[in-house]
Amino acid sequence: MSHETKELTMHIVDRNPQVSGDHIVYRTDFGCSLLPAIESCVEVGLHSECRSAMKEALHHFSQVDGCPECLPQCNDQATTDSVNAAVLAAVTISNL
Ligand SMILES: [Zn+2]
Predict the structure, then answer these.
(1) How far, in Å, is the centroid of ligand 1 from the Cα of 26?
(2) How many CA atoms lie within 13 A of 71 on its CB side?
(3) Backbone angles phi, psi at 87, to 5 degrees
(4) Which pTM does this prediction carry?
(5) Each residue's pLDDT tens digit, 33-88
(6) Where are the domains of the chain?
(7) How far does the centroid of ligand 1 lie from the alpha carbon of residue 6, in Å?
(8) DSSP 3-state assignment of 79?
């Protein structure tokens, strides 16, 4: 991975919470299969990494989480057990 450029990506947060109460944050340049309808989302602006997007999303909703597909580094499981979650995500993606 020699891709060092910090490109800014538009991030959005779902207005509709999950059963857990979390509002999921997505990046729009990933082609994420879990992306909700754009009209049910709020823009959280351009960010080069998910942590700042999550912070911004917290201005809109008190409970947020990163999408496990396009923002696995900011997904709940990843923050509680980053190594295992990263491995799980890699396995999940390679099995798709
Ligand atoms: Zn996603």
Answers:
(1) 5
(2) 29
(3) -65, -45
(4) 0.75
(5) 999 998 999 999 999 999 999 999 999 999 999 999 999 999 986 444 444 555 55
(6) 9-94
(7) 19
(8) helix
